[in-house]
Write a structure and sequence with these properties.
The chain is of the alpha/beta class. Helix content is about 40%, strand content about 20%. It has eight helices and six strands; from the N terminus they run H-E-H-E-E-H-E-H-H-E-H-H-H-E. The chain has a four-stranded mixed sheet, with helices on one face. It has a two-stranded parallel ribbon with strand order 1-2. Helix 1 packs parallel to helix 2.
Length: about 200
């Protein structure tokens, strides 16, 4: 809904694609307040109209039936020597109620994510875990709520980015409360302890 978009657009030329009209509306309003960057209500086109230094797709690949073809096609939007950064949920054995609710097709292991990157012609630069330890608690709560059906009807992929997001001033409070955990999780980045992976891949080399 534009939170990461604003962080990127604040210091870089930014273009984003958001197919869900509700999430797009929130993202667009944030970008307009920033007066930098652009968000388009739609999916990324098959034919690029330019090349970028970096393509970012956070929590996207796990929603796509053909993650291999999607990741391969994204490289056409990236300059030779540029990069792709993705984040995905970790550990297929933890696939649970909330994954089904938000339209996840799969979860990844470190090896399966690395293989996906390499098999699409990219070079793995880094794969780090995130979410240790607080992510486990949040994931447990989300799964409990999903099993109970608490306000979660027909969420699917389109509403996944809005599920359980803090509203208004609570967003800033959550961000402040989360800062210490960024330090706590750092020693675990190279392990498989965490709820998700962030991968950086080089394109064209």
């Amino acid at each position: 809904m534009g939170a990461m978009a604003c962080r990127l657009a604040s210091s870089h030329e930014y273009r984003g694609y958001e197919p869900d009209p509700v999430s797009f509306g929130v993202a667009e309003s944030r970008i307009e307040k920033l007066a930098r960057g652009r968000v388009i209500n739609g999916v990324i086109p098959e034919i690029p109209d330019r090349e970028f230094d970096l393509l970012v797709a956070f929590e996207v690949l796990e929603h796509l039936e053909d993650d291999h073809e999607s990741l391969k096609s994204w490289s056409e939007w990236v300059k030779p020597g540029g990069h792709i950064m993705v984040s995905v949920p970790a550990d297929p054995e933890r696939f649970d109620a909330c994954d089904r609710l938000v339209g996840h097709v799969r979860r990844y292991t470190r090896d399966s994510l690395g293989d996906l990157i390499e098999n699409t012609g990219h070079r793995v630069i880094a794969i780090d875990t995130w979410g240790m330890p607080a992510g486990y608690l949040l994931e447990w709560v989300r799964n409990v709520r999903a099993r109970r059906g608490e306000g979660t009807a027909d969420v699917g992929t389109s509403g996944s980015g809005r599920l359980h997001q803090p509203k208004g001033p609570f967003g800033a409070l959550v961000a402040m409360a989360a800062r210490p955990f960024g330090v706590i999780q750092a020693p675990f980045r190279s392990t498989d302890l965490g709820v998700g992976y962030v991968a950086v891949a080089a394109v064209g080399d």
